[in-house]
Design a protein that fits this description.
Helices cover about 35% and strands about 20% of the residues. By secondary structure, it is of the alpha+beta class. The strands form three sheets. A five-stranded mixed beta sheet has the order 5-6-1-7-8. Strands 9, 10, 11, 12 and 13 form a five-stranded antiparallel beta sheet that branches. The two termini are about 45 Å apart. α3 runs antiparallel to α4 and α10 packs antiparallel against α11.
């Protein structure tokens, strides 16, 4: 059996961990730059407000004038609480595969040695799930739903059912036909609304219909991926395990600006900051980059002076480094040399970003040029020391001057940011 542990209303639950006063109240977490509602508490959903509703349409109902409470996205907090949940699960399960920030598949220990308790397999999984859920709630403070089934796809369905139960745990029966017959195809993991429309044309409306459909029909609609989903609904595991810690093919970092910027200095500062953040990710994987793509987005395409007839909102250029590197200063220097090709006077920029490509492991073999000076493809000791200092003193304590000093105008808006109480010494909770 495979289990799926999923945090209930995860972002909101994290906010309630550091601010218990939010318990029982209608709370929503906003997207980047406090744009729209991306996560909502049950109390907020009960008011009939749709996910994705812009904040400006609701701000008149905000506390203290109204009854709604809003929080800016606190990614540092959410990431750390996610890490803590995974730590608990690794202590309780034989294997853990983290699927997203708030979801993880678990493989429980064998039930063979537990039958002396007088429990059947199904009852044992139910008690085990309750125990795991209680431990996560007690140690981390996050309520979770837990579902068990023979395959990952069925475990997702079991988890969805478990969240609606008081005990928060559901074990899929050996024959889930009745459950699948009530489940629309667009609620099956990996199907979605568009593919569901194609399935309806083949008179496949429910998860049971998809399970029982002929393989050739399923393949004609959604290819081998959908066929795997149908096979999993039949109780045959065929979704390959993914290594979420595997080395990436590319590393990127981008952000929408809190305020539109119009100067080259501000644009370069934003790109330098994102370069430094992406380079940190690169070094974490022990990799070097051959080059990068730099890009920016303007607010109103074609409306600025000297536009040259551009009709797209995204513009960019490609940089190839002298040799594969993970050194932030080398990258920023190479990017700065061509920044002029990205900047146009009069343009209002709303976003920028960077993507590293041509990644290779530090110390990996490579074909050298016989007639060129010897290359040194090694990690930057300077940046290694900077990463160590930032890990000990706090994120961003040591940074490149190219990133600018103080809070820049382009910084992401997070006016309702809660405390980063688990990762920042200056924002620890005060117990009274």
């Amino acid at each position: 059996m495979i289990g799926l542990v999923d945090g209930n209303n995860f972002y909101v639950s994290c906010e309630r961990v550091v601010n218990p006063k939010l318990n029982g109240k209608p709370v929503a977490v906003l997207s980047n730059n406090d744009g729209c509602c991306v996560a909502m508490s049950p109390e907020f959903k009960a008011l009939g407000i749709a996910r994705g509703t812009p904040y400006y349409q609701l701000k008149d109902r905000e506390v203290p004038k109204g009854d709604l409470i809003f929080c800016s996205s606190n990614y540092e907090l959410y990431g750390d609480i996610s890490r803590r949940i995974i730590q608990v699960l690794r202590e309780r399960a034989v294997e853990v595969e983290q699927y997203s920030i708030d979801e993880a598949f678990i493989w429980p220990p064998s039930v063979a040695g537990n039958r002396e308790q007088g429990l059947g397999n199904r009852d044992w999984y139910l008690e085990y799930g309750k125990s795991v859920r209680a431990q996560v709630l007690q140690w981390v403070g996050i309520p979770c739903g837990v579902g068990f089934a023979k395959t990952k796809t069925l475990a997702k369905i079991a988890n969805h059912i478990g969240k609606k139960l008081q005990e928060g745990v559901f074990v899929m029966p050996d024959d889930p036909t009745d459950i699948l017959a009530k489940l629309p195809t667009d609620e099956v993991w990996g199907v979605g609304r568009r593919l569901s429309l194609k399935l309806r044309a083949e008179r496949i409306f429910t998860a049971k219909d998809l399970r029982d459909a002929p393989d050739d029909v399923v393949r004609s609609v959604g290819g081998v991926t959908l066929l795997r989903t149908a096979t999993e609904l039949r109780g045959i595991s065929c979704n390959q395990d993914r290594d979420y810690n595997a080395d990436p093919d590319s590393v990127s970092c981008s952000r929408s600006f809190g305020e539109q910027i119009t100067t080259m200095d501000a644009l370069m500062e934003s790109i330098a900051s994102f370069t430094a953040q992406a380079a940190t990710k690169l070094r974490r994987h022990g990799m070097l980059a051959t080059g990068c793509n730099v890009y920016a987005q303007v607010a109103v395409p074609g409306m600025f002076e000297g536009g040259g007839g551009w009709d797209s909102s995204f513009y960019g250029y490609t940089v190839t480094f002298p040799e594969p590197t993970d050194a932030t200063n080398v990258m920023v220097r190479a990017i700065h040399e061509q920044i002029g090709s990205l900047f146009v006077k009069g343009a209002k920029y709303r976003k920028s970003g960077i993507v590293f490509f041509g990644l290779e492991k530090v110390g990996s073999a490579f074909q050298a040029d016989l007639f060129a000076p010897a290359e040194k493809r090694e990690k930057s000791k300077l940046d290694e020391a900077i990463d160590a200092l930032n890990a000990r003193l706090g994120k961003g304590k040591v940074f490149s001057a190219a990133e600018g000093v103080g809070k820049p105008a382009w910084a992401m808006k997070r006016s309702k940011l809660s405390k980063r109480a688990t990762t920042n010494w200056d924002e620890l909770l005060t117990v009274r």
